[in-house]
Amino acid sequence: MCGGRGTRLDADTEKPLYDIDGRPMVNRVCDALVASRIERVYPVVSPHTPRTRDYLDGRIIAAPGEGYVADLQYAIERIDPPVLTVAADLPLLAGNAIDAVLDRHTSGSLTVRVPAALKRLLGVSIDTTMDFDGQEVAPTGVNVVSDGDAEDVFTTHDARFAVNVNRLADAAVAEELL
Prior knowledge:
The mean pLDDT is 93. A hairpin with a 2-residue loop joins strand 7 (130-132) and strand 8 (135-145). By secondary structure, the protein is of the alpha/beta class. Helices cover 30% and strands 21% of the residues. The protein has helices spanning 25-35, 50-55, 68-76, 95-104, 116-122, 168-177; strands spanning 19-20, 23-24, 44-45, 61-62, 83-86, 109-115, 130-132, 135-145, 151-155. Helix 1 packs across helix 4 (95-104).
């Protein structure tokens, strides 16, 4: 998902093109997907990211730019499930981390979360949390979406899923961890 403006980053570039340690975040995420067992990568852009649209090679999905959830739904309707969805603001991802999610997926949909305590320990921002089995968790921006009613949750302690770059302080943490 590459449709974010990145206004909280207070930068002169679109969020997917924001450099972390000299490389745009979208490159880092796409490289991780290519290094995983994923068969095809479809970057989803929006009217808010015209430079990202121009920058990306290959097949893209041009979503209407009505927000993350609406654009995600738009993209999913154009790809046969199951679909792994990944936000472009996860620059620490690697192929083996994505494969770990795929290993956890058996059927239906899968939501990947991290303990909120891990995000606090790393010093990165937390926008949303929820209680899951008595533990405060935060969504990661990685999910498997599939047909059917079955839903599963994977809570990981892998820091590569905990660092979503939404603010300059998050970018500094990502660069430090690389």
